[in-house]
Amino acid sequence: MEVFKTKSALKAFLAPLKASGKRIALVPTMGALHNGHISLIKMAQQNAEVIICSIFVNPTQFTDPKDLEKYPRPIEHDLAMLADAGCNGVFMPDVAEMYPQGADEDWHIDLGNAEFLLEGEFRKGHYQGVTQIVKKLFDAVEPDVAMFGQKDFQQVLMIKNMLAHFSLPINIIICPIIREEDGLAMSSRNIHLSDVDRKNSLVLNQSLKYVADHFDEFDLKELETKAKAFYENIDGVELDYFTIANGATLEPATSKEENSVVALVAAKVGSTRLIDNMIIK
Ligand code: PAF
């Protein structure tokens, strides 16, 4: 497995592979890898011959500088996991390589109204930062396909809107959420959970599952009320939102007959903010 720190070294590696007709997949990450990321690598291997994983903790998508600072960076462990999984190349640039004019360089594109809902409401400007770096990574790799996890449901929607904005010919593949045995969605942030937080964190999956299991039994308002009730009286858990939304617009679903319905949740568990979702239909 090759490791690249610069766009030029990465491009020099990829050029002959592309010339010989090999399909390239990009798996963008911020490191602190877990089995959820490895499932993206495995999915990439089914869709391309050359797999590039990027590891870059992107400053422009963090709204809280403390969150950026404490973001885990276990790089040796990440590289070992990627080598084990059969990844072909890792792109690990520093901030100056990705933002030569500084991380405050101008970027703003229209991502539609969904940018301002849910995560967008709690993390102002987050999706501008995400789409800014993903565009830079796409420019560096020029992949045929790119893998993203369903866990960041809204992120995938925003990246698809960015792709449409620039008419980029990249196929986006969405990979299912990988959960721990007890149902907690895998996340790089889970390592910050104390033992008590870890037990409390199960409420996210439990409330989503309740909605999925009882979707035919209650109306949408009742389902949402019942799901929110899961969060009452749990010390150390603070619900940011729980919504049953239209999967294309992320506006609250108004009817169960909508083509795509997804339940999405974000909650602070101890000092760690977790998100999760379940596609209902
Ligand atoms: O999902 C992530 O890890 C990040 O938001 C991404 C897509 C790698 C962009 O920094």
From TrEMBL:
<feature type="binding site">
    <location>
        <begin position="186"/>
        <end position="189"/>
    </location>
    <ligand>
        <name>ATP</name>
    </ligand>
</feature>
<dbReference type="InterPro" id="IPR003721">
    <property type="entry name" value="Pantoate_ligase"/>
</dbReference>
<dbReference type="GO" id="GO:0004592">
    <property type="term" value="F:pantoate-beta-alanine ligase activity"/>
</dbReference>
<comment type="similarity">
    <text>Belongs to the pantothenate synthetase family.</text>
</comment>
<keyword id="KW-0547">Nucleotide-binding</keyword>
<dbReference type="GO" id="GO:0015940">
    <property type="term" value="P:pantothenate biosynthetic process"/>
</dbReference>
<feature type="binding site">
    <location>
        <begin position="30"/>
        <end position="37"/>
    </location>
    <ligand>
        <name>ATP</name>
    </ligand>
</feature>
<feature type="binding site">
    <location>
        <position position="61"/>
    </location>
    <ligand>
        <name>(R)-pantoate</name>
    </ligand>
</feature>
<protein>
    <recommendedName>
        <fullName>Pantothenate synthetase</fullName>
        <ecNumber>6.3.2.1</ecNumber>
    </recommendedName>
</protein>
<feature type="binding site">
    <location>
        <position position="155"/>
    </location>
    <ligand>
        <name>(R)-pantoate</name>
    </ligand>
</feature>
<dbReference type="InterPro" id="IPR014729">
    <property type="entry name" value="Rossmann-like_a/b/a_fold"/>
</dbReference>
<feature type="binding site">
    <location>
        <position position="178"/>
    </location>
    <ligand>
        <name>ATP</name>
    </ligand>
</feature>
<keyword id="KW-0963">Cytoplasm</keyword>
<keyword id="KW-0566">Pantothenate biosynthesis</keyword>
<dbReference type="InterPro" id="IPR042176">
    <property type="entry name" value="Pantoate_ligase_C"/>
</dbReference>
<feature type="binding site">
    <location>
        <position position="61"/>
    </location>
    <ligand>
        <name>beta-alanine</name>
    </ligand>
</feature>
<feature type="active site" description="Proton donor">
    <location>
        <position position="37"/>
    </location>
</feature>
<comment type="pathway">
    <text>Cofactor biosynthesis; (R)-pantothenate biosynthesis; (R)-pantothenate from (R)-pantoate and beta-alanine: step 1/1.</text>
</comment>
<dbReference type="GO" id="GO:0005524">
    <property type="term" value="F:ATP binding"/>
</dbReference>
<dbReference type="Pfam" id="PF02569">
    <property type="entry name" value="Pantoate_ligase"/>
</dbReference>
<feature type="binding site">
    <location>
        <begin position="149"/>
        <end position="152"/>
    </location>
    <ligand>
        <name>ATP</name>
    </ligand>
</feature>
<comment type="function">
    <text>Catalyzes the condensation of pantoate with beta-alanine in an ATP-dependent reaction via a pantoyl-adenylate intermediate.</text>
</comment>
<dbReference type="GO" id="GO:0005829">
    <property type="term" value="C:cytosol"/>
</dbReference>
<keyword id="KW-0067">ATP-binding</keyword>
<comment type="subunit">
    <text>Homodimer.</text>
</comment>
<keyword id="KW-0436">Ligase</keyword>
